[in-house]
Amino acid sequence: MTAQRRVVAEVLDGEHVHLTADEVHARAVAKLPEISRATVYNTLGELVSLGEVLEVSTDQRAKRYDPNAHRPHHHLVCAQCGAIRDVHPVGNPLADLPDSERFGFTVSDVEVTYRGVCPNCAAA
Amino acid sequence: MTAQRRVVAEVLDGEHVHLTADEVHARAVAKLPEISRATVYNTLGELVSLGEVLEVSTDQRAKRYDPNAHRPHHHLVCAQCGAIRDVHPVGNPLADLPDSERFGFTVSDVEVTYRGVCPNCAAA
DNA sequence: ACTTGCTTTAGACAATGTCTATTGTAGGAT
DNA sequence: ATCCTACAATAGACATTGTCTAAAGCAAGT
């Protein structure tokens, strides 16, 4: 555990939002000016491997990092401003995929992304 | 309808797979050598706007283009080789998101991505 | 103090996508 | 038939995001 890794972990802990790698880097630099982009990427990759952080890609731009890795959840995204909320749908989508639709795959995971318009954007 | 647009449409029609923009470009160049990358991107963008083609991003690399836009479906992705199958789960995931989990959003769409290992990769 | 091995750094590189300025082209107006 | 206008296509620069590499730093054990 180096100073750099501690800073990256602090940034993710402190924010309850879904930051991109660059946003994590910007906030990390504010706390530790000499931290490099590569270190942020490396550390984020390690945190993902350790299962401490989830990688989500709700738009096709940058990956976002979700510190809420220990409670399974899905995402609700505003199509206009990109705001992201964690959501917990009822039911288990894995059970909704019949064997006949699995094509011999061993299905282990499912990712659900709801899209819509958030109250802010609807008001504007 | 120009020659370039016809070629892009033909490429998507002829292939039942999920091509990246670059793969579309490569196949288009084979049919019409002087077609440019920008034209392929523009045409794909137009087809998406027209609702003729769906944009899917199952990995965080390139977007893929799915000509099967008129039958709603979701995707099953091999975590190892990236193979993609269209699947049709039973039930409606939109109904699985209670009002209390919508945070005032107007939810209009849901995208479900199943992940697993395909038979080929499981055998290897 | 020296060695060994991991970490960090800076910057080059790669992949994907967008933008701009220029050129081409097609169809109507004269 | 020629010209004008508007849209389309092109080449290439540029932007963003991410990965890789070579060099330097640092820490722990000998």
TrEMBL record, chains A, B:
It comes from the Bacteria. Keywords: DNA-binding, Repressor, Transcription, Transcription regulation, Zinc. The keyword Transmembrane does not apply. Coiled coil: none annotated. SUPFAM superfamilies: Winged helix' DNA-binding domain (SSF46785). The keyword Translocase does not apply. CDD domains: Fur_like. Belongs to the Fur family. This is Transcriptional repressor.
